[in-house]
Amino acid sequence: MALVSFRTINYNPNHDPSSGEFSSGGGSSSKEKSTSGLMSKKQAELETKGTKYSKVVLHGTSEAASKDISKSGFKMMKSQTGRQYGDGIYLTPMMDSAREYAKMADNAKGKIISSKVMMKNPYMDGGKNDFTKEAFEYGKKMGIIKKSAKSIDDPPIKKWYEATSKYSNELLKEHDGVVIKGYFDDLVIVKDPSQIKIFEVKGLK
Ligand SMILES: NC(=O)c1ccc[n+]([C@@H]2O[C@H](COP(=O)([O-])OP(=O)(O)OC[C@H]3O[C@@H](n4cnc5c(N)ncnc54)[C@H](O)[C@@H]3O)[C@@H](O)[C@H]2O)c1
Residue with the nearest Cα to atom 39 of ligand 1? Predict the structure, then answer.
């Protein structure tokens, strides 16, 4: 039975995961591994040569955060909104989606950061991998979701997010990123900020 539902990948910016309860929201705020900041697109391409994920990826954020990010690169910060798919940096190849995250972070002053990512060993949803089905089974096995649940629409939404977040963290122990297929495009979660090579920061206009 297919487990596809709107819950499969609800990274729609209109979704409000509220308060970060489904992820540790972890990541230190002082001793993070720092990445390099803004570089040319050519350099970013060079530094990600051989990656298993070659699309340009975007990240919407506030103006203040974008300044720090372009200076010294992404860092694992405390989560602002809650992380539905575990502890990593969240990116999307879709402009509309990144724009919404930027607006949510800073209204009209939000910024969109374009990067290339180095992923040697990502977990890729699709083909033989089915993230939704695996997270559902994982949730049941770990007692997060009731054994009687028949589909991912059965558990309370917080329990479903807890399952997806914890399952993604399990995957991130063995993979350097997780790529989840959405309705419109991928959701990319990168484990280590130093895998991200930034080449452009622009405003919403
Ligand atoms: N922001 C996006 O473009 C984006 C893309 C896909 C999905 N999401 C969704 O949003 C949720 C995660 O939200 P998030 O992206 O706000 O991350 P988050 O909640 O993990 O918050 C971390 C914040 O730290 C900021 N940050 C990173 N490095 C920094 C640095 N060096 N200096 C200052 N700030 C820095 C990020 O921009 C982000 O705002 C996920 O649940 C996911 O579903 C967001």
Answer: 61
